[in-house]
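Hi L.,

As promised, Probable transcriptional regulatory protein A3D35_00040:
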Amino acid sequence: MSGHSHFKTVKATKDANDAKKGKIFSKIGRVITIAVKEGGKDPIMNAKLKTLIDKAKEFNMPKENIERAIKKGAGELGGETLENISIEGFGPSGITLIVEGITDNKNRALTEIKTILNKYQGKMAGEGAVKWMFDRKGVITIELQNNKEELELLAIESGAEDVIQEGNLLYIHTNPEDLEKVKKTLEDKNVKIESSILGWIAKEEVDLDEKEKESCQKLFEALDENDDVQEIYSNIKG
């Protein structure tokens, strides 16, 4: 299987300025709201929600923000209705992209993301034009602590399909239906999970030179600035 090419929009930067922190809190809050809508507001019964609450606390997200996001998902507060969006497209040098997000206004989100793609030598594609070049996989991220071989063995024994290292991070790929099982097995062994999501893994990746990578990075960062964007996947190698 090819490597893990995923631009994380929510970065663990402890020294982020207030504006950046506000954007991070907003994005995490939206994911929490959707998780509650899909699986209920009890973190004991909703493993995804529990993971998100733990992550929110790591970012020092205020308790009242977390509670408000949960109440929104449970329908206890009025206001905006959130929905998932998934956009396919192409970027600089013809790279393929899948942009996933959560929005309270789908038409606005599509227009804004299309504008960003056009500005940075990309374009939006029709439904199905790109996704066939990716596989839907569970992706668990773990920070390595000099225990790579132990984690790899544990992950494979738990049912993981592939384990890939990038820097000090280990990405564990699973079948979508096995994601929670593998995650729980790791947690039962006191492995700290950085993130656990259903993501998109490119079937074939492309090599870019440094100038091309720089152009793509500018696009990713511009997309990241959009409040509705949560995850960005591409077929860039490395």
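Helices lie at 18-39, 47-58, 63-73, 106-119, 148-158, 179-188, 210-224.

Thanks again for sending the construct details.

K.
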